């Protein structure tokens, strides 16, 4: 008498242990990896979202600073003052005169075309005797990088300048090493504390990237406005990581169901193969 498929001993045995394969070393490893991937991908999504919010906040600060009305530099900067994030890129004005005798150049700086040259850093003596560091812009290193370059002269006498307030440069923030033993009148970083020691003067914290008056004959090349950071990519990456995290358990479930079906077919076909084998005499 034929035994119904539902009552076949092999089928019943398989039915009771259909998911027993999940206890195998291979599937335990797959499950553990999936369990590790889910929180990792969720964390990566939050990390990308934090990056998005940081960049978006920075873009708003830059836009607000550039849109603000100019103020005298003395209102925001003082000797020893560290320029804050809210003050960075603020447009300031200053009245005084340039001191080209103590002018230096900043090495390894590029222009809009990625050409390597120098930034020209000129002390600007205010009416009260304090000094403001002014980055007048970029010049090429035509005579090499060891000799002091030909620097176009700034306007003489008392003038009013305008520019963007910038914080002191540091190795930690810029990644630029402050090398020693440089050629005369060359520096690596614009730092008001170091320049105060060199000049023996009261130097306002930070420096100003000059925007007006514009240089004659186009040199030095004044620095352009800061560009906005692309924060949309970080937002997209965050969503992507969270979708990956959601896909992991779905993928695990699909693999388990497929494995179970294949094992079920194999268990059902095994008795049939035994019954069709010819009997040995």
Automatic annotation (TrEMBL):
<dbReference type="InterPro" id="IPR045214">
    <property type="entry name" value="Surf1/Surf4"/>
</dbReference>
<dbReference type="GO" id="GO:0005886">
    <property type="term" value="C:plasma membrane"/>
</dbReference>
<feature type="transmembrane region" description="Helical">
    <location>
        <begin position="235"/>
        <end position="255"/>
    </location>
</feature>
<keyword id="KW-1003">Cell membrane</keyword>
<dbReference type="Pfam" id="PF02104">
    <property type="entry name" value="SURF1"/>
</dbReference>
<dbReference type="InterPro" id="IPR002994">
    <property type="entry name" value="Surf1/Shy1"/>
</dbReference>
<comment type="similarity">
    <text>Belongs to the SURF1 family.</text>
</comment>
<keyword id="KW-0472">Membrane</keyword>
<keyword id="KW-0812">Transmembrane</keyword>
<protein>
    <recommendedName>
        <fullName>SURF1-like protein</fullName>
    </recommendedName>
</protein>
<keyword id="KW-1133">Transmembrane helix</keyword>
<feature type="transmembrane region" description="Helical">
    <location>
        <begin position="27"/>
        <end position="47"/>
    </location>
</feature>
């Amino acid at each position: 008498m034929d035994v119904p498929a539902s009552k076949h001993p092999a089928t019943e045995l398989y039915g009771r242990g259909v998911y027993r394969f999940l206890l195998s070393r291979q599937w335990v490893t797959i499950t553990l990896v999936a369990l590790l991937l889910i929180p990792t991908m969720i964390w990566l999504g939050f990390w990308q979202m934090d990056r998005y919010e940081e960049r978006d906040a920075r873009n708003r600060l830059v836009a607000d600073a550039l849109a603000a009305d100019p103020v005298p530099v003395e209102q925001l900067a003082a000797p020893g003052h560290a320029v804050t994030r809210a003050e960075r890129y603020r447009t300031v004005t200053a009245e005084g005169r340039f001191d080209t005798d103590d002018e230096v150049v900043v090495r390894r700086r590029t222009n809009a075309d990625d050409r390597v040259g120098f930034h020209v850093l000129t002390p600007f003596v205010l009416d009260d005797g304090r000094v403001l560091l002014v980055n007048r812009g970029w010049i090429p290193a035509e005579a090499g990088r060891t000799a002091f370059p030909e620097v176009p002269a700034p306007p003489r006498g008392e003038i009013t300048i305008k520019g963007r307030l910038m914080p002191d440069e540091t190795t930690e923030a810029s990644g630029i090493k402050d090398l020693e033993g440089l050629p005369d009148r060359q520096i690596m970083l614009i730092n008001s504390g170091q320049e105060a020691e060199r000049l023996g003067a009261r130097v306002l914290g930070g420096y100003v990237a000059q925007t007006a008056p514009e240089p004659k004959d186009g040199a030095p090349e004044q620095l352009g406005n800061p560009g906005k950071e692309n924060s949309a990519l970080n937002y997209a990456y965050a969503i992507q990581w969270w979708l990956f995290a959601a896909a992991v358990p779905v993928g695990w479930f699909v693999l388990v169901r497929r494995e179970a079906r294949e094992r079920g077919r194999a268990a059902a076909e095994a008795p049939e193969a035994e019954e069709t084998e010819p009997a040995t005499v």
